[in-house]
Each structure stands twice: as structure tokens, then as C-alpha cells.
Amino acid sequence: MNMRPYSPGTVKPPRWAEKLLTWWGHPDTLEEVQGDLLELHDYWVQTVGEKEANRRYGISVLRLLRPFAKPIQSHEYPQPEYRTTFILSPDMLRNYLTIAWRTLAHNKVYTFINVIGLSIGLAAAMLIMLYTKDEVSYDQFHANNPNIYRITTRNITPEGKQESVGGNTGYFQGPKFSEGVPEIQSFVRIRNHRYDIKQGTEVTSQQVLFTDPNFFAVFSFPLLSGNPQTALLQPKSVVISDEMAKKQFGTTDVLGKIIQFKDSYAENSQFEPYTVTGVAQKSPQNSSIKFDVLVPLVVSKEDMENKTNWFNIFLNTFVLLEPKADISRVASKMNQIYLADAKETIKEMATKYGFKSKVEYALQPFTDMHLNKELPADNGLVDSSNPVYSYILSGIALFILVIACINFVNLTVARSLKRAKEIGIRKVVGGGRTQLTLQFLGESFLLCFCAFAFGLILVQLVLPTFNQLSNKALALSYLFDANLVAGYIALFFVTGLLAGFYPALVLSSFNPVQTLYSRFRLSGRNYLQKSLVVLQFAIASFLIIGTLTIHAQFDYLTTKSLGYDDTHVISVEKSGLKHSEAKLFREELLKNPTIVSVALKNGGQWGTIAKINGETQQNFTYETVDPTYLSLFRIPVVKGRNFSADLPTDSTQSVLVNETFVKESGWKNPLGQVVDFWYNPNEKYRVVGVVKDHHFESLNQKIGPQLFTMKPGNSYGKAFIKIKPGSETASLNYIEKTFKKLFPINPYAYTFLDEDNRSKYEAEAKWKQIMLFGAILTIFISCIGLFGLATLSAERRTKEIGIRKVMGASVSSLVQLLSSDFLRLVGFSFLLAFPAAWYAIRAWLENYPYRIDISIWTFVSAAILSILIALLTVSFQSIKAALGNPITSLRSE
Amino acid sequence: MKRAFLGEFEEVVLLTVAVLDEEAYGVTITQELEQKIGRAVGFSTVHTTLQRLEEKGYLSSRMGGATAERGGRRKRFFMVTATGRKALHEVKLVRDELWRALPPQTLQLMGS
After folding, report:
1. Which of these, A242, A328, A288, lies nearest to A142 by C-alpha position?
2. Interface pTM (ipTM) of the complex?
3. Do B54 and A76 touch (CB under 8 A)?
4. Beta carbons within 10 angstroms of residue A703's beta carbon
5. Cβ separation A31–B43 shorter than 8 A
6. How does pLDDT run across A522-540, given as a tens digit for each residue?
7. d(Cα A278, Cα A234) in Å, to the nearest integer?
8. How far apart are CA A885 and CA A876, in angstroms?
9. 3-state secondary structure of A796
10. What InterPro entries does the database record attribute to this sequence (chain A) (predicted)?
């Protein structure tokens, strides 16, 4: 082997091979292999020439590629560089858990505050989600959705303005439209009615729904027994709910049995046997159609031929459309049919009754009905709701949750000083920021998880109360719904992130050198913490103001004088009470000395129209009364006179009107004016007296024009019986006996009028309670948060307080020092809360025609209340700190 | 104890490491083999064999001795372990026994 003259390193091996080796050589032996090959390459160049050397080098590299090799961690091949531990290695996880557990256990107060606050917040949010889910799920269970629609109407004035909308229809719309529009597969009319029902010797009044035979084909109400296709075909058949069956027969196996029904309203109606042809399951809670008794709707031939029935509107008509039918085309076809069929009647209505508005028909999706304010579920359909309730409730829940999260953020950040050393050590031994962030986020999730579990228990506990408040029958079993579970999990994660993200960022950013030299202070002024406290108290005072206003308005509604005396008045209903019967009834009742007076009135609320001042048409409430009515209620007659029993012409020629009626008519001298019921022949009355305005409806309604008549043809429906105070039991006994003697086949029921009047404000009463709960919860959570902060700040300042005391500071000055910071924040929160609250309550009060004025005192008392509560919370800690012995705080160092 | 198994090439490599003593690393071993056996030995083969021998425990290694011509990279020096030496002895014993067992006439035929 002859050596050529050569200087090492001048010829390089092929670059591709070198690269290849660096990428894919075995990582454990890469270093020496690269070196060896380089050396060998040199040697080969000298011995066998450059070309052969490159070839050998290439081949060796190719044969040494180990692209999938992983470095082995062993004492034989120690890694030269330091490698961090896998972030989620089991060892670290165990350590995180231990540390988390220790910090939580060590700071029991904070853990308690955080868990309680968060679980209340989460429970509130969960309840509201349950509520909202239920609201949204109304009527969704029908298999024919989304093809079920309700026929609705729009009244349009001759000028083209939309006057009103309505969800109700009459006998005609269903059958006539489905006959003429091929897209309508079938229709179902639902009419609300009452039947008297015989149960042994007892007679009770029962709501029934009249409906068409294909009710069960369109809607998905499962029958426990009976054939859904034929159950409602025969006129005298009835489908009842299982509850009704149990009540009536004690069993649900009742097919073919007989129930005695009698129309509650029709005169001279008798009990008739109906055959049970089906038993239905109890209607679901989230259904707008809830029925106990279902009877076929029978429309007489005359009714079907009487074209004015286009304008008699008193029931709900649902249609089932073909899938993918064009709604607007169906609606326009419906309107064509109406215009063609009712042509004559439309003219007649315009000339005879002056009804000039144009009626248009439209379709409303069945599932939209529940939350629709304009076209609500009414007339036999139930549970109509206002989406505003969902919004308010969600708002309150969100407030509570946010406040709880703020507590968490504030307390964690404020407490982080104590953990600064831990963070410093973790960083020094190589903990990265991601690792720390993950650790603290994990801790917040752990806490959130506990809160979540507690929250579920809380929901279970308060669900009955909540149901009562929200008028629902919700159950925790509702939770087993994919959407809801997903929602709850999302809620859990959002809360965990919301509460944990900021503290995790702050804590992980600490500088280890500073923390370990104990030079570390939380950066200066802490604006975030302060503004969060401000936000908390702003929300709390907002809710306090809301609660106070609702309370005041409710008090106003329930205690404001209605303009008549409703005390010690018992109201008894008897439909179709003729004037002769009424006379007898009154005479019988007055035989008992405890009964002071008896007055009669029509049942329900009548309204009609008449002409005044010649041609002007006036709408008004039409009250059929007797001469004692006004005196019984002590409603003064301001001009003219009351009806008199001694003047027989009063019942045929005279009417009384109220002050609003006079005002709307523009009468200077109301007495003697003529009211013309022009559509009835020879019905003209003269006004003989003006009645003082009184709230004959609830205070949620404005007093409208009212007209009193004694027209003999109008039957009474209600008797008002004034009794002596304290004689309730005796009087009620006597009234019942008399009623059953005179009207044995009518259901007897009584109410006390003042109670009745109060029950008109049930909605307000509920909102009052809900707001009260919301306000108490927010205040409670804000306060425990403030308590935590106050404790921390007192702890941090123990030395300062000690020195101040040694220098002669008094306890009161120290308490002032420690409390004033927080009180300033609470005071500042009013700046935010007051304008928002003012705006909100003004908007709410505008719903009421009779309302309280927004009083400055509401705000003042809310402010005083918030400050007092905050002061109590904070001063507890401040006083404790100020009373401490300075020796104990100063000795240690 | 189970008898150590050494392949022919493994045996040669192990012996070479022993021969080179303190100076045994990839390059020297390859060159030595080339010169002693007289045929071109692929570096990759030598490298894998060394790895295998180390896995089996016949060799141990340490890093050291970086030089400029290696681009500053260190060498991996190999040493024969006690097990390695024992294995070599056993192989030699087997050979010697076989040689001794050879009938004299055959031995003569082989011309030694």
C-alpha cells in the first residue's frame, strides 16, 4: 500500500450522506459514528482514492441509518444534556394533588368560601338551565313537528295599519281551509269549555276540551287504552286522563264506562251519559295542550251554514301541513278561500256592525307558541310564558355565578403571596411556566369539581321550592338529556376557566429570585381586585334596588284602594241565573241575620259596543247588575242616581256609566245622554247616573269605560254576598245549604272577594320572591368574598397594626383604618349600580298603568343597606385585628 | 452456566479489541481487521458487531479522546470485560480440544 502525500481534512465526505446520518443515525451512538466515519474517510482517501472513499462512506452511512431508533436512557449511554420531566408524568400529578389538597385543607376558610360561593352560583346556573330547557322544549315532543301550525289572524284597518293580531279562530277556518288547500293534511280544533260532572251525589265543574277526531293523529299523546283513531268519532264519547279516571272510578281500566256530563253554561241543559273510549297518559309538563277530559267537537248544521261564523272567534285551530309545504303560499291560499267564501258576510259586517277592518289569516308554528307574547297559548291552551322571564332568571343566575368567580379570583390572587415560596422553588428546580399554569388551573378545576358536586346536591334540595316559584314541575331526572348534560359540562369548564385562568397566569409569572429573597410584594395598587369588588357590589346593590322596587310596587298593587269595598264579600258563581231565580236566591239568603246584603252581576267579563253622540261607536265593559250592586260595594254615584228597584223602567230604559266613559264620550252633561245599541232593534238607553271610577279589573289594567245595565234578558252569573264580620263559618254554611237547595244540579264554589283580588297579583308575588332570593344570594356570596379579603388584609397588616397600637392608636381608629378601604369600594359601586338600576326599574314599572314613583329613598335605603352589610362583614375582621395584643404580633421575627 | 456463543466475526472482533488494548475504537478496529484478515471489512458491520458485543456484556466502553480530524467528536473506546475474556478462553479451549482430538494422520495430511 503506497501512501500518497496528503494532508488530512482537505477532502470532505459527500454532504448528503453526512446530513442523512445526522437526521437518522442512531441517536445513542451518533457522535462516535460520525467521528469514526470522518476518520475512516480520510484513511480511505489516502489508501483507495477519493471516489472509492466516498462510495464506502455512503454505503456505511446507509447501513447505519436507524430512523426509528429512540435514545435509551441508561447508565451505559447517559444523555449529555438535561431533560425536563414530562409535564403530566404520574409523579408530578401525584405531587400536584398532594399540594392542592394541603393548601385547600390548610386554608379552610377560603376553601369554604370558594366552594360554597361557587356551588351556589353553579346551582343557580343549573336551575336556570333546567328552566330554560323546559321553556324551549315546550310542545317539541309531537312527532309531527315542525309541520304543525296554528291558524292566526291579523286585523288590518282600512288605512292598511295592523290593528291587532290573534291566535284564535272559529268553527270554519279548520274545515274550510283544509278542504281547499291541498297542502293541509288535516286540522284539529280545540275549544275550551266547562262541564258539570256528577261524582256520586257531588256535582263539580270540570274543564273540558272539545276537539276533532284526528286529535291523536296530529298530536302525540299516547293512549293507555282505547283506539286513538276511533276514540273521538262518536259524539257522546269521551277520552279522559289516567288521573281523571282514578279520581272518577278509582281505576284506569275504565273503557266503556259511563260518565254523566252537563254543560255548565247552556241553559236548561241536563246530565247526559258519555262513554269512555280512551284513557290518555297525563299530559307532559312541557305541553301547551293539557287535558283531563276530551270530548268530540260537534258543530250543528245550522252553525256550518251560518256564514257569520267566520267572525265568531273562540277556539284554536291547528293544521298539519305536508312536509316542505311553502308557508306563505298556504297562507295566501287560505286568504283566497276566506275572501271568496265570506264575501257576503264581510259586506254585511261592514254595513251592519261597522266592522271595516280586513282580516288576514296566517300560520304560526306550533312550537313558537309557548314563548310568543303577541300570539300566546290561550283559550284552553295553557302555560303561556314570556321569554322575559327566562332572560331575567338567566341574568340573575349569571350575576350569582360571576360574583362567585370573582371571589375565587380575588381570594386566590390575594392569597398567592403565601404560595410565592412554593412557586419560587418550583421554578428554581426547573418548573416551566406552562407547568405552573397547568397546576393552578388544575387546582381551580378540582375546587370547581367539588363545587359542582355540591351544586348538584343543592339543586336537588331546592328544586321543590323553585318549582313552586316558577310554576313548573321540573325534576332532576330531566338532567339525563344529552344537551343538558353537555351544557352542564360546558358550564363546569367555563366556570373552572373563568375562575382559574387569571390567578394561574399571575401566579406562574412570579419571579423566583424575588419570591425566594422575601422581597416580593404583590404589585402596588391591585386595580383588578378593587374593580372586581366594585363590580360585585354594584351587582348586589342593583339587585337590592330591584327587590325594593318590586316590593314597593307589589305593596302598592295589593293595598291601593280599588275604589270599592271588597271586605267580607263572598262571591258565588251560578251560570245562567235568571232574574226570577236571583230574586228567590236573594230572599232566601237574607233570611239569615248574618247576611247583610246580596248583589248580583253577570258572570265573567262582558264587553260590547254601542253608539253615542249619534254615530260615534264606543267600546266598553258591559256590566249587568242589580240595584244593590253599587251600594254593596260602596261605589259612590257622583252624578244622577243609582238604579232603583221601585222604578221598573230602569231595567229597560236606563243605564249608568263610569267617569271614564263620560270622559271618553266628551259629554259635558252626561245625564240624559243616549246610548244606542243599534244592532238590536229598539235598544236605546238614557244615562241616569255617573259612577265613580273604580278598579273593576286588576291594577295591571287601566280603568276603561264601563256601562251598567239591568236588562232583564241578560242573565246573572255571580252573586256577591256581604256578611257580618266574624260570621264566616255560619254564613258559608247557610249559603251552601241555600244554594244546594235551590240549584241542586249546579256545582257550588265560593271565594272571598278580597282574596280573589289579591290572587290577581300572583305573578308579581312570585317575582318578588325570586328577586328576593336572587338578591340575598348575591349579597351573601359578595359578603363572604369581602370577608375573605378583609381577613387577608388584616393578616398582612398585623405588624403594622401592632406598631400603631404601641404608638398609641385607639381601637376605633384602627377599625376605621382597616374598614375604610373596603367601604370606599362599596361606595364607588353605587356609581355603577344606580344608573343601571334606575333604567331597569323604570322600564319594568312602565308595564303598570298604576305604579309607584321611583323614589330617591329606594336608592338611599339600598345604599345604606349595602354599606351596613359590608361594614358588618369587614368590621368583624377589623375589630378582631385591632383588639389583638401587639406583643404577639410584634414578637415574632 | 450456559456456554457463551460467539459468532466467527464476533470472535475476531473481540480478539482485535483485546489486541488493540487501550487503542480500540471504531477506526482502529476496522483498520486492524482489514490488515489482519486481508479483506475489506465494512465499517457498519464492525460497528453493529461492537454494539452487539457490548449488549452481550463482552465489551464495555467509555467516551474520550476527541481530535480535530474527527471534527471535534469523541471516540468510543472499547475494552474486553471479564465475561468477554472468559468467552474468548472458552472458544479457544474448544478449538484446542478439537485440535488435540485430531488423529495424527489427518494432522499430517493437513500439512502442519
Report:
1. A288
2. 0.86
3. yes
4. 19
5. no
6. 545 577 788 888 888 898 8
7. 12
8. 16
9. helix
10. ABC3_permease_C (IPR003838), MacB_PCD (IPR025857), Macrolide_Exporter_MacB (IPR050250), Permease_put_prefix (IPR047699)
**Does residue B1 surpass a pLDDT of 50?**
no
Q: Give the C-alpha separation, A751 to A568, whole Å.
A: 11
* A478 contacts chain B (CB < 8 A): no
Let me know: does A126 contact A459? Beta carbons within 8 Å.
Answer: yes
Model confidence pLDDT, tens digit, residues A307-329: 888 888 888 999 999 998 889 99
Contact assessment for residue A779 and residue A572, using Cβ atoms and an 8 Å cutoff: no
If one counts every other C-beta atom within 10 angstroms of the C-beta of residue A574, the result is: 22
Neighboring chain A residues of B68 at a CB cutoff of 8 Å: 9
pLDDT digits (tens, 9 = 90+) for A849-890: 888 888 888 899 999 988 898 888 888 888 888 888 888 878
Q: Which of A9, A31, A56 sits opposite B73 (nearest CB)?
A: A31
Interface contact A56, partner B, CB < 8 A: yes
Do A612 and A686 touch, CB atoms closer than 8 A?
Answer: no
At a CB cut-off of 8 Å and minimum separation 6, what does A83 contact?
Answer: none
Residues in chain A within 8 Å Cβ distance of B25: 32, 36
* A-chain residue closest to B60, CA distance: A76
Mutate to test the interface with B, among A36, A37, A43, A60 (most CBs of B within 10 A): A36
3-state secondary structure of A67: coil
Angle A361-A364-A370 (CA atoms, 0-180°, nearest 5)?
Answer: 135
| Helix and strand element counts for chain A (H, E) | 27, 22
> Measured on CA atoms in the order A46, A52, A56, A58, is the torsion positive or negative?
positive
Which residue among A31, A33, A42 sits closest to B47, beta carbon to beta carbon?
Answer: A33
| SS3 state at A848 | coil
Q: A740 near A533, Cβ under 8 Å?
A: no
A648 touches chain B (CB under 8 A): no
**Cell reading at A595:** 247576611
Among B112, B62, B52, B111, which residue's Cα sits nearest to residue B87? B52
Rounded distance between C-alpha atoms, residue B101 and residue B107, angstroms? 10
How far apart CA A380 and CA A862 sit, in angstroms, is 43
A258 near B CB under 8 A: no
Of A67-76, A372-381, A553-562, B95-104, the range with the lowest mean pLDDT is A67-76
Ordered DSSP codes for A459-513: HHHHHHHHHHHHT----GGGG--HHHHHHHHHHHHHHHHHHHHHHHHHHHT--HH
Cell of A90: 404520574
Closest CA to A629 of A598, A593, A590, A592: A598
Q: Please give the backbone phi and psi of residue A188, each rounded to the nearest 5 degrees, phi first.
A: -135, 125
**The residue to which cell 387546582 is assigned:** A443
Given a contact cutoff of 8 angstroms between Cβ atoms, the answer to whether A396 and A121 are in contact is no
Please report residues of B whose CB lies closer than 8 A to that of A9: 68-69
- In chain B, residues with a C-beta closer than 8 Å to the C-beta of A29 are 47, 51, 76
Other C-beta atoms within 10 Å of A725: how many?
9
List, in order, residues 6 or more apart from A857 with CB less than 8 Å away: none
Partner-chain contact A34 B44, CB within 8 Å: no
CB contact under 8 A, A35 and B73: yes
Which phi and psi (to 5°) does residue A521 adopt? Answer: -130, 145
Supply the pLDDT for residue A72: 65
Contact A36 B25 (CB under 8 A): yes
